[in-house]
Amino acid sequence: MWQPRRAQWTVIWTVAVLAVLAWPPDRGRSLLLKSINRAADPADSLPALPPPLPMGLDDDGDAVSAHDAREVDYYRQYNRSNLVRWRMRLKEAGEPLDPVTERQLLVGLVALSGLLVWRLNART
């Protein structure tokens, strides 16, 4: 029975873990991206950029003031240092590609790595 060699196991495990972590779900973010978002701000201490005010609230002075205060806090933190700016970008990062394209690339990576494992087997 065929047993993979060390180099083949390295390729198999690396690609398998990468495919599982990077596979985009139908809704939301991949495990890899969720991990990056969580690692960027584990204590959830960095503020998120507030969404724009709805059109109906522009007459409500209290709502506008509260929104502006959250926005000022966000930009104060954002401009504090390059490290904080980088962490805030990572905290809010989304999927870099369309999920369908990402899945196609991952399937291609798995197929090519299968060919690589097969090629490494031919060298014995």
Count of extended strands? 0
Give me the strand/helix succession: HHHHH
The helix-and-strand class reads: mainly alpha
Mean pLDDT: 88
Strand content: under 5%
* Silhouette: elongated
Helix residue percentage:
55-70%
Instruction: Count up the domains.
Output: 1
Q: What is the terminal separation in angstroms?
A: 15 Å
Query: How large, in whole angstroms, is the Cα Rg?
Result: 22 Å
Q: In terms of quaternary structure, what is this?
A: single chain
Task: Pick out the low-confidence regions.
Answer: none
* Discrete helix count: 5
The biggest beta sheet is recorded as: none
Description:
With 124 residues, the protein is an all-alpha fold. It has one domain. 64% of the residues lie in helices and 0% in strands. The chain is built from five helices and no strands. α1 runs antiparallel to α5. The two termini are 15 Å apart.
